[in-house]
């Protein structure tokens, strides 16, 4: 009986040894050809082709020192009931770097709405979230705007002859260059209607000189109807941003009434001629510089 017990015990130990050896051989087979060197000093677990191993080498860093990326971030909560996505964003670009690696929104959807199954965000105890990431490339160049007071050649004079023979339409001066842009004056000798018995005058932005940066332009101007006998000129001040497109004008509909204009003693209409003057007192000039 004792011999039988010893025999059974010996068979059991032999089975354990064979099983352990087979397991070690199996681990070697699983890791073979996967770039992982088997070492009996490591504790290694293999399962369905997935390997885990302790190593001394530090993980490689995929991002360089001082990295930074700007992201236009939108987060989503899926509503399968409506087949739509609740989009959450604040419109600001998020800057990710070593100091700030996480961005988000503290209140994407009220919990009362999210957990209400009638709203459709949870279906079968399952919910879905998503993110839309647009990388915003850093600006390499930028516009530098300089405001120039009393720029060179900033006074333009326009004399209109045979004023009484002019038709009821707008007339325009020759163009003149101030800053990086051309400008013109315009007026209607019969007024603008609507019961306004007065003379209008407008200042228009035109095209740009060669190699200038075409962009919105600031223009501030003194518009005058010259008194040809005294220094008592009619003057208005106008200042505005002029768009890139040509033909945008700013001015006044009533620089002088027709009654005062036609009064010969006043000195504004002399020998059937009037004189307009534009004095550009400030203009913007734009240049492209490195960011």
From TrEMBL:
Keywords linked to the UniProt accession: Signal
Ranges where the MATH domain occurs: 153-280
Alphabetical list of SUPFAM superfamilies matching this protein: TRAF domain-like
One Pfam family named in its UniProt record: MATH
Record's signal peptide: 1-23
Record InterPro entries: MATH/TRAF_dom, TRAF-like
Superkingdom of this protein's organism: Eukaryota
Name the record gives this protein: MATH domain-containing protein
């Amino acid at each position: 009986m004792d011999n039988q017990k010893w025999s059974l015990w010996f068979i059991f130990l032999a089975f354990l040894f064979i099983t352990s050896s087979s397991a070690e051989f199996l681990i070697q087979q699983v890791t073979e050809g996967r770039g992982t060197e088997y070492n009996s000093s490591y504790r290694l677990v293999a399962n369905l082709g997935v390997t885990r191993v302790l190593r001394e080498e530090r993980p490689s860093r995929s991002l360089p020192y001082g990295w930074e990326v700007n992201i236009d971030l939108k987060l989503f909560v899926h509503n399968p009931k409506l087949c739509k996505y609740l989009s959450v964003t604040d419109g600001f670009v998020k800057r990710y770097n070593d100091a700030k690696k996480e961005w988000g929104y503290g209140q994407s959807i009220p919990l009362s709405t999210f957990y209400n199954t009638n709203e459709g965000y949870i279906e079968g105890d399952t919910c879905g979230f998503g993110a839309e990431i647009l990388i915003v490339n850093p600006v390499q160049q930028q516009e530098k705007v300089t405001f120039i007071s009393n720029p060179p050649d900033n006074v333009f004079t326009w004399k209109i002859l045979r004023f009484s023979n002019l038709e009821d339409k707008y007339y325009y001066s020759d163009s003149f260059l101030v800053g990086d842009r051309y400008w013109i004056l315009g007026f209607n000798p019969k007024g603008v209607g609507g019961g306004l018995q007065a003379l209008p005058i407008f200042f228009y932005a035109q095209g740009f000189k060669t190699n200038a940066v075409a962009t919105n332009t600031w223009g501030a101007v003194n518009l005058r109807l010259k008194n040809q006998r005294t220094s008592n000129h009619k003057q208005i001040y106008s200042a505005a941003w002029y768009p890139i497109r040509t033909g945008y004008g700013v001015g006044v509909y009533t620089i002088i009434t027709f009654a005062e204009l036609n009064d010969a003693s006043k000195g504004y209409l002399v020998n059937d001629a009037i004189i307009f003057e534009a004095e550009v007192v400030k203009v913007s000039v734009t240049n492209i510089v490195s960011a």
